[in-house]
Write a structure and sequence with these properties.
The chain is built from 8 helices and 8 strands. It has 258 residues and is an alpha/beta fold.
Length: 258
């Protein structure tokens, strides 16, 4: 069984007879024949809560209008479903690995107090200011943060903690194509060790459903959602194909009617 999915990427090259200038760059569109058995839908951080209220409202709208029908459609096709809600949330589900797969601290260099962006001790002057909102946020997350109830895993679906764990699952199931939805576009969708950057480096074919995600915006970009748009364009340029919810749903429907 195959899902025929129209996708695009952004080409930062030109043909030999066309001037190599940025105004001549353009999208390349292609219809990809995805074997259902070799394809997985990956839901990144589709959370129930967040400390950024404006982003949470936008993400809830995307979840209800886009991600829920995508998930339902993928389930109907028999596609592998992978929930990737960050390790602390994944800990609450039965699919947790028996042994810890957290990242090793490695060597003692750089010094522990120097690591990260909130540096301390003799390196405090190089760190960012501590944010008073974070301690109560993390405390609240201990009880409130969970996978959104609208996309809770069903029996037989996978909940992964780490990129290595997901890679092992994909190897076991011989999956080559990963269709991504979830949040936030410019944070976890690209940056997690099971996100687009890492899985692209591992060699998988990545497809982002570009209207089934939204990024963290800035005070001067939120009205136009510029940060989200630029993150998607960067992904289209270097790491992945993209498609839309409508195209996915149409392809899934056509596949189910075969």
């Amino acid at each position: 069984m195959f899902l025929s999915l129209p996708c695009r990427y952004y080409r930062v090259y030109t043909d030999l007879d066309v001037p190599s200038v940025e105004t001549n760059f353009q999208f390349v569109e292609r219809e990809l024949p995805l074997s259902i058995g070799q394809t997985a839908l990956v839901l990144v951080d589709v959370w129930s809560t967040h400390y950024i209220d404006s982003w949470l409202a936008r993400a809830k709208e995307v979840t209800e209008a886009k991600i829920v029908p995508i998930l339902e459609s993928a389930r109907e096709t028999g596609m592998t479903i992978i929930h990737a809600p960050s390790p602390p949330v994944a800990d609450r589900y039965d699919d947790a690995p028996e042994t810890s797969q957290t990242k090793s601290e490695g060597s003692d260099w750089p010094p522990v107090d120097f690591r990260g962006i909130y540096r301390s001790g003799p390196y405090a002057e190089f760190g960012r200011n501590q944010e008073p909102i974070l301690p109560p946020t993390y405390k609240r997350y201990e009880t409130e943060l969970d996978i959104n109830v609208l996309v809770k895993p069903l029996e037989g679906e996978h909940v992964i903690h780490t990129g290595p764990q997901m890679h092992n699952l994909l190897l076991e199931k011989q999956i080559l194509h990963l269709i991504y939805v979830g949040f936030a576009t410019n944070w976890c969708v690209i940056g997690r060790d099971y996100g687009i950057l890492a899985m692209n480096e591992r060699g998988y074919n990545i497809i982002l459903i570009r209207d089934a995600t939204t990024g963290i915006e800035f005070h001067d970009t939120v009205n136009a959602l510029t940060a989200t748009s630029m993150a998607i364009r960067e992904i289209e340029t270097k790491q992945a194909w993209t498609t839309t919810t409508d195209e996915f749903l149409k392809g899934s429907k056509d596949n189910c009617e075969l």
